[in-house]
Amino acid sequence: MKEPQYNKETIREYLRHQNSTWNQRIMHWYHDEFQAIPTCRSEAETAICLLYEQAGYPPPARFVWFLSPFDLLSSLHFEIETEHIPHFEHLKKVISARISEAENTSILYIPLSLYPKAPAWYQKFRRESIFAWMNSPDNNDIQELNQLEGAWGLRILEALGDSIQQTKHSIAPYLKNIDTFISFWMQFVVCPNWIDDALLFENVAEFFSMPELLQNAESIRRVLKTCGWIIATEEVCFVSDKHIIAHHDKAGRLHSDNGFALEYADGWGIYAHHGIRIPSQEYHELEHQKKLGLKGQEKLW
Description:
Layout: H1 8-34, H2 41-55, E1 62-66, H3 69-75, E2 77-85, E3 88-100, E4 111-112, H4 120-135, H5 152-165, H6 172-175, H7 178-188, E5 189-190, H8 195-208, H9 214-226, E6 230-233, E7 236-240, E8 245-246, E9 262-263, E10 269-273, E11 276-278, H10 280-286, H11 294-297
Parallel strand pairs: 1-7
Antiparallel strand pairs: 2-3, 4-6, 5-6, 6-7, 8-9, 9-10, 10-11
């Protein structure tokens, strides 16, 4: 794959190209693909094996399935080592992690990153475009992204943090430092938020007319369409089913005035109001209200 030539103005043009359609693309994904296609375990396992291959690993010897992301995290036992990030006193990053299928199991598995191998120039261009957007005052004319309220994957992550914190689970202490949990999650968990990476591959492929990059995007899409969260190791791949029910508003944001906005087969789920996640305790306090009004809104995260 030939490396494209680019400069600062190229990056600015790319950002305009990406951001002009990003919100529509991500909402189309959650609304028409993530929601509409149910779990298919056989298809998911085939797609996951392809993701292993693109990340440079042989396929796992076996798959272990769970009914929800909460079922997955709460059923496994975690040992995580962290270290402080230089120059940031309160921030930590995960430097190693080990997983077992039960607390009393001596066999420990090392989690893998299944991020597809990409050309060095792509990684470099991606970093430079992110830094350019964050740091350059000259980008004021580029449309700002407004995806957070639409990113269902972030709502799932937040709700998982709440649910796990209420238990004495082995990963619960790490959730007290959300940066540690996010570090673990970003390195070792394949989840719906990976649609961002698929869209980035697609946008760069489109901008530079390099269809070779679409293979990486398609492998991610195939996995996310057919299953929920994934924690991969060389020997075994731990996978959760997708939700069984999803409700959203006309803008595609998670929303329900009556019960879960996103529900899983084991009874775990997420309450949300127009994309704003409602912690379960707060939802039950507001349940007596027929509609969520201003007073209720002030309580929401």
